[in-house]
Write a structure and sequence with these properties.
Structural class: mainly alpha
Mean pLDDT: 89
Order of helices and strands: HHHHHH
Largest sheet: none
Distance between the termini: 13 Å
Helix content: over 70%
Shape: flat
Strand content: under 5%
């Protein structure tokens, strides 16, 4: 297997992480403040929704390409890294709290992915 395909798989994971953070931030900034009413239209027209859409589109296309070259039994568990990266990224970029047990779970996920891929 080619290292390029594994790097593309990591891009899939990073695009999924970026997409989820963008959607969450888009929802956060479109929530009602100071008497304004929340509108799903505000979210749909925001740049963060657009980022989410673009990331998921490219993520899906790359995923289809990666599946042609990497066995599903190895590629799919790598997607589990999103379960680790999203809380880490939301902690640093969205200032969300991550409890000790979550950090423990994140380390277990990363260890599990490493074990499955090897």
């Amino acid at each position: 297997m080619n290292i390029t395909n594994w790097l593309l798989l990591m891009v899939v994971v990073l695009l999924g992480t970026t997409a989820n953070l963008s959607l969450k931030y888009g929802l956060y900034i479109s929530s009602p403040t100071k008497g304004e009413s929340a509108s799903i239209l505000n979210l749909l027209l925001s740049r963060y929704f657009f980022i989410w859409f673009i990331c998921y589109t490219f993520m899906t296309l790359l995923w289809l390409y990666v599946l042609r070259t990497i066995p599903l039994s190895q590629a799919f568990p790598v997607l589990g890294l999103m379960y680790a990266l999203i809380p880490i990224a939301s902690h640093y970029f969205l200032k969300e709290q991550v409890a000790f047990t979550q950090w423990l779970g994140i380390s277990i996920i990363i260890t599990g992915v490493v074990l499955v891929v090897n």
